Amino acid sequence: MPQRALNDDVLLVASGDLRPAANRTCWPAQAELESSLEVALQREGRTLTRAHPLDEEAGHGFIDSQRMGMDVFASVPRDAPLIVATAAWQYSHHVLAGLRRHRGPVLTVANWSGQWPGLVGMLNLNGSLTKAGVAYDSLWSERFDDALFQVGLWRWLNGQRVEHDLSHVRRFEVGEVDEEIRSVGRGVAKELAQRMAILGVFDEGCMGMYNAIIDDELLAPLGIYKERLSQSALVAEMRIVTDTEAGAVRAWLDRRGMTFHTGLNPAAELTDAQIHEQCKMYIAAVRMAERFGCDAIGIQYQQGLKDMTPASDLVEGLLNDPDRPPVHDRSGRLIRDGLAIPHFNEVDEGAAVDALVPAAPGQAPPPWWVGGGLLWPFFADKRTLLPPGDLLGTLTPLLGVGAAACFPMAAAALFGVVVPAPWFPWVIVAALLWAVFGWHVTVGSLRG
């Protein structure tokens, strides 16, 4: 089939966050990315044109709602070559409706930078587009003048697909797996289908991550069902937790050697009051998981929750460790003593299935929930995401990076230390490895 060169004009859209403060904070990085893209296209004799203007009053040029995205795409020619540029976290549903019906070539582009998670935002959008069956190509770069980017851009501008090295990827062949391991898998699947499991999903899809939602029709044959919960109910449950109960959780953490670097400014530092609220959230989450019979739960620290409570990171870490503070229900009964309550971060339902499948229902948690151990289907190994000792205090705030800019009540969720910008890409790489290979931070590993 003859290849068609694209028109000289290439349109650009920029999907942004739902939070005005995050969009304003990240806009300079987005503007720099777009300027670099404009120069790169000029080198190829093409013109880059924004499909929506900068909003001077709002202080940014992002598409910041699904409605705005629909309105923007209403004026975008459906066959136009289109670049979706991402330099920060973005809500994919802002542009997904327009991209679903777009018929022209689509290129998603991100900057490789430690300042804001543009690459992660692009990967989230890519996952959503893949799930929706929308064809696209992807490129990323640090300066947008390297050979890999320029060759990829030239190919896309000339009607060709962007090619990436996929030599490390191979198809999974069940027949290559040892029969003993397959037998274990069949046994877990049979028990799961017989007993069935419940995922407690707090405000499904509220982060715009269409790719993180697994349809019920796909989960049901596995014996997995969802209990759709509201984050407002979590806040209501927190209000019932007493100060004495929350104080007991904090005292348990202190006795076990957990170190908190606290300050007095709640907008920029972790405070004792915020820790106290997180302890209440932890108790509330455990009680709700038990009340609804959830085998795992997922909380999204977004939307209204971010405006009402401190960040949920400490809560999530505690839930994922069987060595956690004890929680009693209102009648005084101890809830799941010695067992983790798996938490799937940001309600990523794919991670939820990963958490359930290896753990035979009703049995002890799998090895990776215990002290950072990792279970492979081929061999046993033990690893932890973070090193023990003093380095921990200078390396990461455990997802608290940039929290003050995007979450007014979050501060730095666990450690009052900000990761230096040049290190952040490696933090992202570590997080991706964590997601792929099952690395988990536990209270035990944090203690070293």
Uncertain runs are: 1-5, 359-406, 410-429, 431-448
Largest sheet: 5 strands, parallel
| C-alpha-based Rg, rounded | 23 Å
- β-strand number: 10
Q: What do these coordinates show?
A:
By secondary structure, the chain is an alpha/beta fold. Helices cover 40% and strands 10% of the residues. The protein has 17 helices and ten strands. The strands form three sheets. The protein has a five-stranded parallel beta sheet. Helix 2 runs parallel beside helix 3 (93-101), helix 9 (243-255) crosses helix 10 and helix 10 (272-291) crosses helix 12 (313-319). The model is unreliable at 1-5, 359-406, 410-429 and 431-448 (pLDDT under 50).
Task: Annotate the secondary structure layout.
Blueprint: E1 9-13, H1 20-43, E2 47-50, H2 66-74, E3 82-86, H3 93-101, E4 106-111, H4 118-132, E5 137-141, H5 147-157, H6 179-195, E6 197-202, H7 216-219, E7 224-229, H8 231-240, H9 243-255, H10 272-291, E8 296-298, H11 303-308, H12 313-319, H13 349-356, E9 373-375, E10 380-382, H14 391-395, H15 403-406, H16 424-437, H17 443-447
Parallel strand pairs: 1-2, 1-3, 3-4, 4-5, 6-7, 6-8
Antiparallel strand pairs: 9-10
Helix pairs in contact: 2-3, 3-4, 8-10, 9-10, 10-12
